[in-house]
Amino acid sequence: MIKKEMIAMLLAGGQGSRLGILTSKVAKPAVSFGGKYRIIDFPLSNCINSGVDTVGVLTQYRPLRLNTHIGIGIPWDLDRNIGGVTVLPPYEKSTNSEWYTGTANAIYQNIEYMETFNPDYVLILSGDHIYKMDYEVMLDYHKSNDAEITIAAMPVPIEEAKRFGILITDENRQITEFEEKPEKPRSNLASMGIYIFNWKSLRESLVAMADQPNLDFGKHIIPYLFNKGGRCFAYEFNSYWKDVGTLHSYWEANMELIDIVPDFNLYEEYWKIYTRSETLPPQYISESSVVERSIIGEGTYVYGKVYNSVIGCNITIGKDTIVRDSIIMNNTVIGDGCDITKAIIAEDVNIGNNVTLGTGDEAPNETDPSIYTNGIVTVGEHTVVPDGVSVGKNSVISGNLVKNDFENNALGSGKTLIKAGDEL
Questions:
Q1: Which of 16, 94, 239, 279 has the CA that lies 20 to 30 A from 336?
Q2: What is the tens place of the pLDDT at every residue in 324-368?
Q3: What span, in angstroms and rounded, lies between the C-alpha atoms of 412 and 346?
Q4: Spatial separation of the C-alpha atoms in residues 106 and 90, rounded to whole Å
Q5: Which run of H or of E encompasses 67?
Q6: pTM assigned to the model
Q7: Cβ contacts of residue 238 below 8 Å, gap of 6+?
Q8: pLDDT tens digit string along 129-175?
Q9: Distance CA 167, CA 174 (A)
Q10: Rounded distance between C-alpha atoms, residue 156 and residue 158, angstroms
Q11: What is the C-alpha radius of gyration for the chain, rounded to an integer number of angstroms?
């Protein structure tokens, strides 16, 4: 029988609805990040750098791009005969068919996959965080405490603590209480959604709690183990970790990559971030162009000026175009004479000549004021923007747009323009 000490289960099925139009056609873990990467590259790279060579990736929402990106795991050295990476979508069973209805339900539906490897430990990961972590160090900590579950946790500002599962621990970091998103937090030690379970304890608790609707780790599995008297410990993590769950945090995390000394370094030799990359020619920067404090991906042609921006691969930026404080994803063409400020432009977008994005004063977005904030203009993938139009701040546009969609060639701040056939 195959025997693995620890396998990883990577939850990558979420829509990430707070990313708005960016995830209308693609799962959040497959969203581009940092030029040439996708968000899922970070936990996958952490796995192989930590010596975890067996990873089940649980997909559900819009999985095509994610599946294509992962393939058989070659970029992460996860194309193994035994173990490696396996994509685990929901599947039809003889008695019933159901979608994954909660984080723990997704794991429960894949008990057979985990049993194949007869592991001692199971590492549960989320597919939508940006960080570097050595899971082997966490496993050593788990063993040294003779724990049933170890939860990675980090201190957060107390005013933000109510957004997280909060851990209250004794002086040995043993968890004495667990509160899921408390209104009045009594601690600022927040669960990161990264868990190491003893396999026997995990299996037993999944089976015991299987009937719970929307079976969830924070609400059901961890409290169940805890109430049974299981040894639960917090593993404190104090390095860079970013939940890129909102457009603003996603924009911020990208902008932090271009600091002179970035908090999060993509280029460390000893802890590489791997990704699937196309074979593209090098970047071309024309004589008349200017590039300052920016990341420019392979196969990109810059004829204009780029400041403080993250530019992906296979992009064209036209003559006399100025791009500031923006994120532009792969395979996008921007015409001549454009002025683009604080925009997030998704993949495969075509922007005409003399287009202005991010103009005027801020106004709250008319359809989703909590999503489209902080003055960012968001452009959905496969969007076509006609020549000579301007778009205000906190706006979102998507679809095959034409001049008639814009009143007086302009879309004011806080407006939403999503053509029929494009989901919100």
A1: 279
A2: 999 999 999 999 999 999 999 999 999 999 999 999 999 999 999
A3: 20
A4: 8
A5: helix 64-70
A6: 0.91
A7: 154, 155
A8: 999 999 999 999 999 999 999 999 999 888 888 888 899 999 999 99
A9: 9
A10: 6
A11: 23
